[in-house]
Amino acid sequence: MDEEIRKKILTLLDQHRIMTIATLRPDGWPQATTVGYGNEGLTLYFLCGLDSQKAANLARDDRVSLTIDHDAPQIMEITGLSMAAHAQAITDPAEGLKALHLLMAKYPEQQSSPPPMPSPADVRIFRVTPAVISVLDYSKGFAHTDLVTC
User: Strands 145-149, 124-137: parallel, antiparallel or unpaired by DSSP?
Assistant: First the structure.
């Protein structure tokens, strides 16, 4: 991956805090849900309930597809990321705590009166490692994407 595209990916990751993540249900149908995320470089973290459908889906199959984007006032201003990735549950409490702090850092407006933060034992925390990233940038042409293999 060249440095220019890496910087573009990191900029988009840092500008956003919500992603739509799709997991595979037991019947084979995809299940897409919206979650908050934190990131450290290209590694993303999200959390969900211990007994959530996402956690159960990922226990069976760690493959995910996700998107990170926002609404744009003009169609040719659309930018975003789409990824094929693997999501592994975090078992190390120190990494779990780091992930929670990365997630909360995305919400600076709540720093003065932060909501009660769950402990890593209260939630399932996942580390998302991209395999393929598609960088969408309509300013370079309608539906323009740069495909990056990680």
Answer: antiparallel
